[in-house]
UniProtKB/TrEMBL annotation:
Organism: Alosa alosa (allis shad)
Keyword Metal-binding: yes
Keyword vocabulary terms for this entry: Calcium, Cell adhesion, Cell junction, Cell membrane, Glycoprotein, Membrane, Metal-binding, Repeat, Signal, Transmembrane, Transmembrane helix
CDD domains: Cadherin_repeat
Function: Cadherins are calcium-dependent cell adhesion proteins.
Transmembrane stretches, start-end: 606-637
Superkingdom of origin organism: Eukaryota
Protein's name in the database: Cadherin domain-containing protein
SMART domains: CA
InterPro entries in the cross-refs: Cadherin, Cadherin-like_dom, Cadherin-like_sf, Cadherin_CS, Cadherin_Y-type_LIR, Catenin-bd_sf
GO cellular component terms, semicolon-separated: adherens junction; catenin complex
Amino acid sequence: MREGLARKVWLLCLGALLCGVSSGLDRAHRRHMGLHRHRGERGKEGQVLHRSKRGWVWNQFFVIEEYTGPDPVLVGRLHSDVDSGDGNIKYILSGEGAGTIFVIDDKTGNIHATKTLDREEQAQYTLTAQAVARDTMKPLEPPSEFIVKVQDINDNPPEFLHGPYYARVPEMSNVGTSVITVTASDADDPTYGNSARLVYSILQGQPYFSVEPQTGVIRTALPNMDREARQEYDVVIQAKDMGGHMGGLSGTTDVKITLTDVNDNPPKFPQSVYTMAVSEDKVPGEEVGRLKAKDPDMGENGMVEYRFLEGDGMGVLEINKDSETQEAVIKLKKVVDYEKKKTYTVKVEAWNPHVDPRFMAWGPYKDTATVKVSVEDADEPPVFNEASYNFEVEENAPEGTVVGQVHARDTDTANNPVRYMIPRYTDLGQFFGITPEDGVIKTTRPLDRENQAWHNISVSATEIGGHHQDSKVRVNIKVKDVNDNPPEFATNNEVLVCENVVPGKLIETVSATDKDEMAHRQYFQFSLPPEVVNNHNFTLKDNKDSTASIYVMRKGFSRMTQDMYFLPIEINDNGVPPQSSTQTLTIRVCSCDSKETILSCNVEPFILPAGLSTGALIAILACIVILLAIVVLFVALRRQKKEPLIVFEEEDIRENIITYDDEGGGEEDTEAFDIATLQNPDGANGFLPRKDIKPELQFPMRPGARPVANSVDVDDFIKTRISDADNDPTAPPYDSIQIYGYEGRGSVAGSLSSLESVTTDSDLDYDYLQSWGPRFKKLADLYGTKDSADDNS
């Protein structure tokens, strides 16, 4: 600020506006705020006091929100010391809302609010004021900022932004247990008055719940609230501003409170005694009956387990739980018999596996019931004395040999007699029979253990009378072995021996097998028959362990002399009765090297010419393969090469004779035959293909050299064909004679054709054609009718 510049700023502010609805008064109170530049003041002692000079001193301006008066609201007034009131000073306002919301009188400096303000949208506005010369627009004072604050009124009700609310609280909770906290918000200014001071209260839900006025915490208000009696509660909470006083605005929200379950109820059987029945023909595992203890709790709190406590039925009954229905299922553990015991009793206990310790004093959490099971009589099938039978019979036993006996009885009170039979599907070979009255099993034919050592059959027992119940039992019959099969070689392989084998060499060890069962310490004995004991080629030694060794007795075997030897060997099994057989061992002589490695055992190489070795055979085969390859290559090349044209005499195509067996209609017939058909249809396109060979090149014909298709000038036609044949590069190197039945022009006989008859008038009379018969009727109609028509015309 410049020295000597006398300034004085008067700030007139409009303050609290009194909006009296009842009186209808709507006027603004002006608030004057200003700073005066004081000139020097003299103190008591004659001293001159000086204050620092300031052009502007500002305070905040206030304007009430939601003002709805008819005139703009006067916010305040700007005044400068340099303003002498002559109108030379201009006041300028800029900043937030300047010119739109706030306007200034540039002469007086009065600031008005032209629009209704909402503090919740914008709480304050920052503006800039400046005084300038009206004529030059030069600043007279530095610009300064000031704030216009919007003064709050209670125009917004409280709102629950997160409602509606859902809460859960365990049943049987103590009084004062916190359930949930609800919170409301008020858009009014919390720093001004009580517009945003909220108080909570409960409108619905008493006397079960309460709410803290200041915090909004909902708590239980009654003890022992039982979920089984009522599970859900609808609570309405109100929030009111102005501290809850009259005239305040309010808002509400809904709170749904659900009581959760606790285990506060023991299981309970609806009745104390249950009666059930089971038939004696039921098998273990079948269901006898069900019972259920009711527990009003939910989830694991309502889970119930079952068990037997006591009773004479604990040995024949068992109890399980159906996890889906929570029922106790009683099943048979053992078969019951009506004839032995008719009733059973058990005591069943139902109990909760999950007990809440807080409610142990409310127990016990279990209940008991008595179950009485009565056994019902049933017509049962016969019962065999054994679960299965095992019998033995010797093989080769004669027909009718007794194998064994089975026995069954009717356990019912009637004790009906029983008949026995063997189902055929268990004895397809029908080896056995049974006596129906007493169950004695016998053979129907001799049995062979070597074919079938075991026979597994079934025997059916059916009661006579009643419901003809039947039952079956398994019978296993073992066929005992009898030594009835002679031994034989275990393998029938040939023995190979070298030509240069040395005497005494072991060439083979033979063994034997027997279809019969070998007894303990039983073994096979080997020996040579008497007729070959003294042979000089081979000998045999019994090893006493069911094997025998074959040795060579001499040397100098020759395949050329004898290439195969047959050695008979007797084998005895030492059984009861003893069985023996004579087996033949085949010994083949082979060619070997010096190390006794077998080279060949076949006789075919000896009939080949001497000196023809294996290498020579391979060479001959290679030559044959090469010759075959050459022949195949030659044939393939000939197929790719073009074959020359071969013309057989009987297929000579040099003369093309076309014969037409058509009967003409006379000289005046112009439609019977068209000479143009002698032309090649392909010639009309300018190309004459050869029919006897495939041309390599095709030359187009000279334009204009061929007569038109409808031309009847045969002479020109023939000349054209001759020219085409002479100029055809694909023509064969021999003359081609083409013969046409045409006499040419200037013939004494004249033209035989009627092609030109239509263009000349004829003086001939054709009436005689009418008398020639039906064959000439067409011709007579053509010419006679025409003449008649001409005469009539």
